[in-house]
Amino acid sequence: MGNFREFRGGETLGSEAWNCLCMVREAAPLIQCITNYVSMDIMANTLLAAGASPAMVHAVEEISDFTALAHALCINIGTLSPDWVFSMKAAAVRANELGKPWVLDPVGVGASRFRTERCLELIALRPAVIRGNASEIMVMVGATAPTKGVDSAHASTDALEAAKELSRRTQSIVAVSGAVDLVTDGKRVLGVSNGVALMQRIAATGCAVTALITAFVAVSPSRPLEAAAFALAVFGLAGEIGHEKANGPASLRMHLLDSLHGLDEGTVLSRIRIAQI
After folding, report:
1. The predicted structure's pLDDT at residue 3
2. For the sheet containing 53-56, what is the strand order?
3. Phi-psi group of 51: left, alpha or beta (phi > 0 → left; psi -120 to 50 → alpha; rest → beta)
4. pLDDT over 90 for what percent of the chain?
5. How do residues 225-250 score in pLDDT, each as one tens digit?
6. Rg of the Cα trace of the chain?
């Protein structure tokens, strides 16, 4: 990823978030997504609206060649089958071989033994970032956490200690989505309070923000904690702006994508809400 200009410290978090978004727009990183059928459309359109280039490539026969072309890899376990699991593992291994970051979305982990076991096998391949809801994060450290399919039965703050523990075990950045998004490296915690509740009424918005995290990590691989927080904040901010024009979930989806595409520096600097916790 040496061709990408990384931002450095000494700037406000709002400025850094804007710089990271600008890098995505300038570099247009190619993001390989192995993801579920429900999320493919909104993930691809989120990446395009942010300035990245999406590719939904999951055939194992393409993994060796295509993962080498991609700048980063996003794996989402929402649609699981033995063939897809094989492709996910092969892509993660290939990304690791090439020093490319990859991000895991453990959709619905805990809903079945098959899903949980496969997810833990993927975690062992060391993703740069794991992004899930509170229930998913708690399950991955062995907590008894009731699930509602792909929805969380807990608030993000309920999973903070589990997120820290998971990060320490895996050496991955862990992001927990919720009313306040939490991102941790096991010690530091960043809280993101952008977004609106109606975003939860649009299918696969969580999957979409995981794809955006992947794009941000692609252009700033040495700072995955901050990159993940910036992506969550930018996506949440786009949702806030879209909500000002929306009449419901369907129009919010449209206006969210438009707002993400049109974000400008002044808006990002004045409305991004990220804090050290």
Report:
1. 43
2. 53-56, 30-34, 72-76, 102-105, 129-133, 173-177, 181-184, 189-192, 274-276
3. left
4. 88
5. 999 999 999 999 999 999 999 999 99
6. 17
